[in-house]
């Protein structure tokens, strides 16, 4: 393979771009539908026993984790289509988003999910 000065052509991966685009569009669509259904159900059924508080916390966990995933996917798709116009700060954001996609869910679960927190404390206390 000859050495080229345009590395964007050499390393272009169409399957990766299709995958990230599909994940981004499907995730945003599904969670928008989920949010609308949750709000509709919340308006038609008033909360009596705090059931919606737990659902809201679960929805917040989902939104936080999926939001980071969506940002990472969107930035990587943009980098695939417009690598020459990418600001280095956005490249760093995409890299940190990729790290956050893999490292942030346990932190979110530990801070927002009482059951997970209780189980972790019980595990730590037993040793």
Provide a compact summary of the structure.
This protein has 127 residues and is an all-alpha fold. The protein has helices spanning 7-10, 14-44, 51-81, 88-112, 114-126. Helix 4 crosses helix 5.
Please provide a written account of the structure.
With 127 residues, this protein is an all-alpha fold. It has one domain (7-102). The chain contains 5 helices and no strands. Helix 4 (88-112) packs across helix 5. The longest helix has 31 residues, at 14-44. The radius of gyration is 20 Å and the shape is flat. The termini are far apart. The model has no long low-confidence stretch (mean pLDDT 81).
Keywords:
mainly alpha; 127 residues
* Basic shape: flat
Helix content: over 70%
Largest sheet: none
Number of strands: 0
Radius of gyration: 20 Å
- Helical segment count: 5
Global mean pLDDT: 81
Structural class of the helices, strands and pairings?
mainly alpha
Q: Please indicate the percent range of residues in DSSP E strands (runs of 2 or more).
A: under 5%
In total, the number of domains comes to: 1
Summarize the helix and strand pattern as letters: HHHHH
Distance between the termini: 57 Å
Low-confidence stretches: none
Write the layout of secondary structure elements.
Layout: H1 7-10, H2 14-44, H3 51-81, H4 88-112, H5 114-126
Helix pairs in contact: 2-3, 3-4, 4-5
